[in-house]
Amino acid sequence: MSLNRRDFLKAGAVAAVGAVAPPPLLVRLGRSAEPVPPLDDPRVKELALRALDAARAAGAAYADVRLTHTWVRGINSKSSIGNTESLAVGVRALVSGYWGFASSAIWSPDEVARLGREAVGQASTNALGKPRTVDLGPAPVVRDGQWQTPVRIDPFTVPVEEVLDYLQSLVIYTSLFPGASAFLDCTFTKQEKIFASTAGSYLAQRLYRTQGTMSVDYQQGHQRGTLGVGALRPAARGWEHLLDAPLREAVPRLIAELREDFALPKKTVDVGRYDLVADAPSMAGLLANTIGSATQIDRALGYEANAGGTSFLNDPLAMLGSYRIGAPILTVVANRSEPTGTATVKWDDEGIAPDDFPLVDQGILVDFQTTREQAAWLAPWYAKRGRPARSHGCADAPSALEAAMQHMPNLTLTPGREALDFDDLVAGVADGIAVKALRVDMDFQHLNGTGYTSRFYEIKKGKRVAMLRAAGILFRAPELWKNLTALGGPRSLAWVGGSEPKGEPTQTTSFSVGAVPGVFKDVTLIDVTRKA
């Protein structure tokens, strides 16, 4: 009997999966334990309604419940395989203007009823404080709503050995280029989630996210460098996200890009102010960490002060419609509807269908990210514009174990009108710097920032003529965006996956940012190795 390569991989993969796969999860919906039922099993709905009945009977003015069933699979080209599966149920209750929340990893009728009572107990204790009211705003009732991320291939139906074969074939292909090697990994996430409320909504969603990395390492003489393939950034897609990515085509392109870098002279930083050309991923990072974070209304009002930080947009009602946050060419739109965006859903974690809304319109701050309760905080601004105080559908949480709170939607930087890309923008700068793949760090208020990367370039007469060692930038968010002078065109738009920790205990959720290259004037270039 002979074994071919696929048989060998399959045998190894099966052994690896067996070694890391957790035992199957069981629930107790009746007298005995059984596998987790599918979303459309009527007993799952009964479980959710039981939690709501318990909360209502205990005195909740309003309550909602979320149930999540989450799978995560990680595989890399070195045959490392990991699988996790988890359950969660969380109940939120409102009593006399105060919230209570209780959650568990157990699905059973007795447990969800206990959580309903516990959430009301917490809210009642909180309500002993200063009296307050909560205006939740409109929430159209949706009965038995169903939706799933429109993936072409469910990654959890793809045999592990097939994934390994695909990853390792790319490693082998890359090795055919002298001096080159590659490493790949991928992570698949599927989450089934139920939402039900005492208002009458019952919603079921199945969400997918696929992401990965492919790094190409290349050595030429004494010089060595590594670049990653952006096509595998997180996306709301299935196995097709890897299959459709032009990974083979990317290998010679990345090698050529590294050779270009190797050929450039290396210079120390001449500290000063320069025109800066940033590529699309760099612009996405700048956008998310400045305007994206700063337009979260809970940050702006100080509710994140003991956790993820506040916002320089600290007087929302006074700033809306009048505060210039950027140049007139700057328009930023938020949504949870982008087809492959990792924040995309049909309904948020409060049962609201999100809308698309501008945050910045031609440089002016015009809105904030909101949930049901938060929308009422901006009611005077919405009334002034003839709009109802409606949630933008930004409530989210990693699973039902965590209380839903306001998290980042997808963001889009509206492209410029001219058909320009990164190289075109570089060609328009006589004396300046260019940057690729900038890493952004912000302060507590998301006002002052720094940016670092190993890929800073000196520009002379419209060309990149040298690489800058130990370079970084310093900036203040408002001045940065007010100094935006040019943007790439629609064809230069690239989508980048992001994540942001928030809250205490920390929650981390995913979102996507669509951005184009851009040019800023008067950006401060620093030497990151210089000590004061």
Please give the structural blueprint.
Layout: H1 5-20, E1 26-27, E2 34-35, H2 42-57, E3 62-76, E4 81-95, E5 98-104, H3 109-126, E6 145-148, H4 160-175, E7 180-197, E8 202-220, E9 223-228, H5 240-244, H6 247-263, E10 266-267, E11 272-278, H7 280-294, H8 297-300, H9 316-319, E12 332-335, E13 357-361, E14 364-365, H10 372-375, H11 379-384, E15 395-396, E16 405-406, E17 410-413, H12 422-427, E18 431-435, E19 439-442, E20 448-452, E21 456-460, E22 463-468, E23 471-476, H13 477-482, E24 484-487, E25 494-502, E26 507-515, E27 518-527
Parallel strand pairs: 6-8, 10-22, 11-18, 17-26
Antiparallel strand pairs: 1-2, 3-4, 3-7, 4-5, 7-8, 8-9, 11-27, 12-13, 12-17, 13-14, 15-16, 18-21, 19-20, 20-23, 21-22, 23-27, 24-27, 25-26
Helix pairs in contact: 1-4, 2-3
In brief, what are we looking at here?
This protein has 13 helices and 27 strands. It is 25% helix and 34% strand. It is globular, with a radius of gyration of 25 Å.
Could you please describe the fold and organization of this structure?
There is one protein chain. By secondary structure, the protein is α+β, with helices and mostly antiparallel strands. The chain folds into 2 domains: 5-258, PmbA/TldD superfamily (PmbA/TldD fold, 2-Layer Sandwich); 266-527, no CATH class. Helices cover 25% and strands 34% of the residues. The protein has helices at 5-20, 42-57, 109-126, 160-175, 240-244, 247-263, 280-294, 297-300, 316-319, 372-375, 379-384, 422-427, 477-482; strands spanning 26-27, 34-35, 62-76, 81-95, 98-104, 145-148, 180-197, 202-220, 223-228, 266-267, 272-278, 332-335, 357-361, 364-365, 395-396, 405-406, 410-413, 431-435, 439-442, 448-452, 456-460, 463-468, 471-476, 484-487, 494-502, 507-515, 518-527. Strands 10, 11, 18, 19, 20, 21, 22, 23, 24 and 27 form a 10-stranded mixed β-sheet that branches. Helix 1 packs across helix 4 (160-175) and helix 2 (42-57) packs parallel to helix 3. The N and C termini lie far apart (70 Å).
